[in-house]
Amino acid sequence: MSLQGGPDFRSYARTAPVNDLHPVKYYGQASVTAEASSKDTVVFYYRQMQWVSICGKIPYFDSRFELSYHRKLCDKLTLDLGARAWEADYTSGNLGTSLRNDMLYMASAGLTWLANSHLSFNLAYGANLGRNLQDMANSQYRDYDQNLVSLGAVLKL
């Protein structure tokens, strides 16, 4: 288990598009790993922090909650399952055109087969559901669904 948390002291320039130039924000991060048996591992991950947006204009509050499960089905085959909820809340700035609150829900499943100590193959599926949480006209235009299927090989030399 690992835990971190506490205050995050910020200081923005007078020209920054935020209402409070010297806010105190919350920061938290945790990871808990449980080995339920020699074949089963469950991991929970959590993080919340203020971050600078990719466009560099306003900060956003980043919240992530992840849960993963790893199962060794036999000596050469493993199963991985995962779920994540990730929120990017841009409403702490004061740019009216940049107010956003986006949520991403993810689910994944994968199988990995170890052919030998140097070669493995994997098959995976992932579903990503992007949702707008901001109360606005035509908010559904920001929503999306994405389905990904992958087949891969890893060669260790």
**Class based on secondary structure composition and strand pairing:** mainly beta
CATH superfamily placement: monomeric porin ompg
Share of residues in helices: under 10%
Number of strands: 8
Strand order of the largest sheet: 1-2-3-4-5-6-7-8
Largest sheet: 8 strands, antiparallel
What is the overall number of helices? 0
Layout of strands and helices, then pairs:
Layout: E1 2-9, E2 24-35, E3 40-52, E4 59-72, E5 77-89, E6 101-114, E7 119-132, E8 144-155
What does this structure look like?
The chain has 157 residues and is an all-beta fold. It has one domain: Porin (Beta Barrel). It contains no helices and eight strands. It has an eight-stranded antiparallel beta sheet, with no helix packed on it. The chain is elongated, with a radius of gyration of 20 Å. The mean pLDDT is 89.
TL;DR of this structure?
This protein has 157 residues and is mostly beta strands. Helices cover 0% and strands 64% of the residues. Strands 1-2-3-4-5-6-7-8 form an eight-stranded antiparallel β-sheet, with no helix packed on it.
Write out key terms for the chains shown.
mainly beta, 0% helix, 157 residues, Porin
